[in-house]
Structures
1.
Amino acid sequence: MSTVGAGIPEPPREDPNSAWLSADELEWTRARLPLLYVEAVPVRVDGLGVVTHVGVLLRANEAGEMTRTLVSGRVMYGETVRDALFRHLEKDLGPMAFPLLPASPVPFQVAEYFPIPGLSAYVDERQHAVSLAYVVPVSGTCEPRQDALEITWVTPAEASSPAFHAEMEGGRGTLLRAALASVGVLG
Amino acid sequence: MSTVGAGIPEPPREDPNSAWLSADELEWTRARLPLLYVEAVPVRVDGLGVVTHVGVLLRANEAGEMTRTLVSGRVMYGETVRDALFRHLEKDLGPMAFPLLPASPVPFQVAEYFPIPGLSAYVDERQHAVSLAYVVPVSGTCEPRQDALEITWVTPAEASSPAFHAEMEGGRGTLLRAALASVGVLG
Amino acid sequence: MSTVGAGIPEPPREDPNSAWLSADELEWTRARLPLLYVEAVPVRVDGLGVVTHVGVLLRANEAGEMTRTLVSGRVMYGETVRDALFRHLEKDLGPMAFPLLPASPVPFQVAEYFPIPGLSAYVDERQHAVSLAYVVPVSGTCEPRQDALEITWVTPAEASSPAFHAEMEGGRGTLLRAALASVGVLG
Amino acid sequence: MSTVGAGIPEPPREDPNSAWLSADELEWTRARLPLLYVEAVPVRVDGLGVVTHVGVLLRANEAGEMTRTLVSGRVMYGETVRDALFRHLEKDLGPMAFPLLPASPVPFQVAEYFPIPGLSAYVDERQHAVSLAYVVPVSGTCEPRQDALEITWVTPAEASSPAFHAEMEGGRGTLLRAALASVGVLG
């Protein structure tokens, strides 16, 4: 097998126009570029828009440990941030969650994940990722799919506690607290 | 020449840890991933923080035409958004501009550039780029370097005009107006 | 009738605990204090949260002229900003509008109205008012009540035009454009 | 002594155009209207705009107890929010603090203080006050004046702690944490 020229990566094998990278390509990319992610904090709101509950995912990480996390995922080539947000909400909460995406595309926070701790509040051993994070009210029924085992709904007070903070992976306790602050319910 | 394995891109030739991509690698990446950018609207403020002037770059684009644009550039692997913002401000405005980066990492707008018009207000023929845009007061002397020919300081009223809007490349007139709105001076 | 002491205003006559001021009391207050207002830009959004239409009220002002305006009104004593926002949305759009109040209490803009032009972009001949302005998606049917004659739904492009801007009272064209910018649809 | 008419409050005695209310007038107003306040969290930033220290005031309250608080004060009739913010920063931090007011007039949070606890996170026994809160970098020397006894500079980590939170009056620990979250440094 040959390459087209020096330094040109191999094209994807099956669909040259696919927005999806092969495992090898993703590994290559992760070592060279910051990847763009979206994250969502699903919430329940009352009739006046006040956040009453916050949804947190329980998930087994690659080491088999149970950790709490948020809805999150990569933005694909050609995909809008809004489309990516909707896709990952559906992937993690199921098709009946009925998320109400915010009218504003401005995130409540930009979370920068680095493979090495200390550069920011957020760590992702796999990669440098920059994540646009949104609070998203959901009005329907959430049934986690894929690798998320369960969604837990907690009150803002519970979600504000240091104990809860400590259970979240990659520094997302900080992100969750920033989410609560942005909607005025950080305890 | 051979590849290390099927689908594995060639490593960069000179510095395997470089955050910089070769031209070929960049081209490959641009066809497969959204690239993360930062953009800045440099402003002059008065003693109360009110924006009095807005800095816009005059630059020759690849077709040799003069267009107006904003400070902008890519976020590198391992670099924080803030570092990238500072680096590009220095690159475009010179080392004596003394930018006062915002305390908040939340951009005033997320601009999504697609190669094909119509998906959003922003177009970049080269790539899918997602840009975090900030208003940045500068207190020093601006001397454009590199490919920026000139920086022009205009009032918010001038910058708000449809005529000015039309002179800006890639839809950045819309981004400039959003910047003015975010600081309360859109005419 | 006597006063309790020099400089002490008369108490309200009918209900001493009423949050509502008499006409005289309101006039007195308007000459001495900035009044707190809320304003809302009602919008229609699509399934991904993108603003597709903007609602603007047509109203006869005190001089009998037809002007375009936004949902707006005073925050009463003891009332939360959110309650006031809901109350004025219901007053201006009717009980079936079903507004989805934002989870975040932070306005997209703070509009400062002064009796004298030139201090800011906003003018209110009656008073100094400071208005917290929000973009509010509505999912139901809007039927203006009270003094609003009609609600008109226009596209973001129409609402962005200078002509439309000029028809709005008190500088609210500027506020409307800031609203459009905040949700990424300013033309 | 007579009143001008039933229900018309007495005009101020000394300067009928004064934006300042007499003690009686202020008391009357506090029982009938929400008062507009500004609050500021003064911060020190590094060369990249990252918040390194947060300034908190130590003050004796009316009961003679020492409490921690933020820069705060009322917006006067005819005064812009920005002017009020500058005035109160100078009042509380002295004339050499050199605050860098934000270019954006949008607060990081709207804090609603009610005389009765439970309506919101914030309590002010004297009144219903709505406060627009800003993070303000200061570059000079702070020397508290008036009733503020001392300004203490703490790190974001210290300011994030529950113990620190508990020392602040009127719920301002919540506001301080929201400030830290808004600039990405809540611990």
2.
Amino acid sequence: MKTTARKKTVKRAAGAAAKPRPRNAFYAQSGGVTAVINASAAGVIEAARKFPKHIGKVYAGRHGIIGALTEDLIDTSAEDPATIRALRHTPAGAFGSARFKLKGLEQNRAEYERLIEVFKAHDIGYFFYNGGNDSMDTALKVSQIGEALGYPVTCVGVPKTVDNDLPLTDCCPGFGSVAKYIAVSTREAALDVASMARTSTKVFVLEVMGRHAGWIAAAGGLAGRKADDAPQVILFPEIAFDKPAFLAKVKQSVERNGYCVIVVSEGTRYPDGRFLAEAGTKDAFGHTQLGGVGPVIAGMVKEELGYKYHWAVADYLQRAARHIASQVDVDQAYAVGKAAVEFAVKGHNAVMPAIIRQPGKAYRWKIEAVPLAEVANVEKTVPRHFITADGFGITAACRRYLEPLIAGEAYPPYVDGLPDYVRIKGKAVKRKLKTTYKV
Amino acid sequence: MKTTARKKTVKRAAGAAAKPRPRNAFYAQSGGVTAVINASAAGVIEAARKFPKHIGKVYAGRHGIIGALTEDLIDTSAEDPATIRALRHTPAGAFGSARFKLKGLEQNRAEYERLIEVFKAHDIGYFFYNGGNDSMDTALKVSQIGEALGYPVTCVGVPKTVDNDLPLTDCCPGFGSVAKYIAVSTREAALDVASMARTSTKVFVLEVMGRHAGWIAAAGGLAGRKADDAPQVILFPEIAFDKPAFLAKVKQSVERNGYCVIVVSEGTRYPDGRFLAEAGTKDAFGHTQLGGVGPVIAGMVKEELGYKYHWAVADYLQRAARHIASQVDVDQAYAVGKAAVEFAVKGHNAVMPAIIRQPGKAYRWKIEAVPLAEVANVEKTVPRHFITADGFGITAACRRYLEPLIAGEAYPPYVDGLPDYVRIKGKAVKRKLKTTYKV
């Protein structure tokens, strides 16, 4: 088994290649956090405790990979088991995340040498990296350079991204909960604007995340069931923005339904590739608007059609909304964490647990390992057949894909009217190196 | 009893003054809607069914008072009882609301004459008006002019406003649920930015409603429990914006905690009274920013302190968020609707059911009738002793006031991963008048 192979450079391990000896694991959260990334952490940590012959302690990087580079490791074994269980219902990154992409070995060999230095010092044999596209690339690099630098580490990527844009996996943990939040919020806000439209607001705009892929915007489409149900307009990054067609669609909706709800992806672009949010569009008052496509769209509607509008920008609220997380999403987030450990102890290296949708009418899924090399830096956008011909809605096929992902309400416990989210103690692992590293 | 008194002008009622004869009731939703205004509608309709000797049918105005003026009435008796029950868990205005303030009798006598014409035609003896300050004023006027125009109507206001700014009542139905949504969202987003702050976003800004009163902003303060917990800064309309003090507070929080969460009321103003959102403030890129105080504050932080930021504007999402409604709020919304009917059949006129907090440590409340004349057009803002000395937080007294209002999770039922909100049939009452009225 790969994971139990070791080299002479590993102290205390010489000659033990055939028989597993527990080695420590490093776990890190990377990139934008989600409502369920801590469920994956719980999956990794709880599963690791079931393989004491393979895995010693799980050390989490404080603020992701930066914790590894700076030898700032959190000893998860010092946390109460109840705390680890509670991570399942706690949003955001309990150990701290980082937007920090490792460069290639050629560009910054020092970074990798430092990683290996820290891994050696703490006898780390497993590397679990919980993130999106960039992070799968990092995990792949670490799996390769470990070998190159004489310290092989078993690397498993743990998928996480609200953008739902990783390939090979049917969906990405984190997405289902954002999708549920956006679908619920769109349905609720639509009822509001429908109530007000007779004398006041006629157009409501909800800006959602997804700079390159329109999966979250598509999820807004779940709010309606029938033709003319809100949202009447969805703007996808995958579809070049056609202003006259858009305005005609809004006008038609207001004239037919009395109001119009628009869900717009932050990544919506003009045909020439400029983001609407960055295109210097004027708002209703002639001022240049920047820093949100929602107000840009609202201003355009006001200026061209004269309708009274409201707009909302959900921003972090959408991806942190653990209070309305999808049960399927929580289950899958936990499952990929758990599977990552199981794959690692079975000797799989440079893989990612992927969620595989099973054929059949009822939604069933399983986990399979897929090679990181095929995942890293590949982006899965919304396919054209998931978007209606006019470019402003989702098709029945898209609905069939999305609907199971928002199933079930995984409510957190409440105390005094508020979700009882957990905080880790975050006990630091004693430093072993005299060297420091500046990031 | 006042409510059973009638004049010769009412057909079929002559000589029946001493003995109640059922007369119909008019119910309307007014102004901005809430997550629980339909619970009040359910309270009115279900209670009315328990007084068949007093109240015949409940007719709801389609789009509020406009439905009365245009004789566009919805027959609530044509709705399935299950639909009326489901209003308790359905946000926004099921019958349609209106932003339409009746003028004084002197300014527009025709409006009142038209109302009375419609009320007479449909034998309406009760007027239940579900709204905020302006609506209580309207209900008061109708109670006065009914008499003046020879058609007395028993008028009871049903309180509703997310702004929580009605006097005499301890709180306003609609507020508790927004407060819960904002407190939950602030807590969640704070965990997100805390995760990201090491390498990315350091300041998160959440813009909330409340143009004149900072109750909703104050509710954001419930997210934290200890000093230094998020939100570290709350900006109230009641406190003149002090830019240097604000920036110093943000800087201090980032330096001490690594990040800063700001909850800003849309009504935050400069000392000279200008709204920040309308003050032509430049964003980080030197562009004039308008249409949201959230981005204005974020831009200011970026420009002056250089911190990376994110901002969210919850807008309608906050007041429509029935999925995370407060159980106390839902109960109170229902109770004020029910009490309005009970007061009316007991002969109270020109009153509003108010929520009275009982003394004692445990939160208990009851309903009492208060005179509309003392409610109309009076605005209750956040008292100074509810705001910390520095103007950026809430005091323990404020927390004691707010906390019970967000207690309990009144989850709606779900189907296919989404809340199962009800839609009324909305069967129109047959028109009796040949005249029409243009609003």
